[in-house]
Inverse folding.
């Protein structure tokens, strides 16, 4: 996979959500480029800190909120998963996203297995709930069991660095590393 280390996080997240691409092409803010279907998966295993997770989700919301022309009619699923799906919060408006943030509780704290998220997303696609899926953004420390095969949509792992060295991410995935200080930094997402 390729690394998005030098890209501003806000550009990275927006491009993945809007175009499902890996940011090589410039973003165009036309009507057909609105965020439609997208999945944000959150690793809620015991090795990931709740305040860091909540800060990441808040900053992702802040990035989207600044793009009012893109963030109108959306279908975002925020999945909490450790070794199984603990929650699927479906977000269809900025107001629902804010309400989710205001009441967000971390569920899980077990071991890490990324495969349940990909199985669940495939189930949602089969049911027609994610017909225009652009991509999946997975916030994690990267220590877990990855799927063996590339899914039919872009997948980016935002790796929360924990000082234990870089985990091996599948070659088909996009990866971006962020330290805890970067995630908790007030300027995160404003770049």
């Amino acid at each position: 996979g390729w690394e998005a280390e030098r890209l501003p996080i806000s550009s990275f997240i927006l491009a993945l959500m809007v175009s499902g691409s890996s940011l090589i092409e410039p973003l165009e803010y036309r009507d057909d480029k609105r965020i439609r279907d997208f999945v944000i998966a959150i690793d809620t295993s015991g090795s990931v800190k709740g305040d860091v997770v909540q800060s990441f989700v808040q900053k992702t919301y802040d990035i989207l909120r600044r793009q009012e022309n893109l963030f109108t009619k959306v279908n975002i699923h925020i999945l909490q998963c450790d070794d199984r799906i603990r929650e699927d919060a479906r977000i269809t408006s900025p107001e629902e996203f804010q309400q989710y943030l205001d009441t967000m509780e971390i569920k899980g704290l077990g071991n890490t297995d990324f495969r349940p998220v990909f199985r669940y997303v495939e189930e949602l696609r089969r049911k027609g709930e994610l017909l225009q899926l652009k991509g999946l953004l997975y916030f994690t420390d990267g220590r877990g069991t990855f799927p063996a095969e590339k899914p039919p949509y872009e997948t980016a792992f935002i790796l929360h660095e924990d000082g234990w060295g870089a985990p091996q991410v599948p070659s088909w995935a996009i990866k971006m590393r962020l330290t805890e200080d970067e995630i908790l930094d007030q300027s995160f997402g404003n770049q």
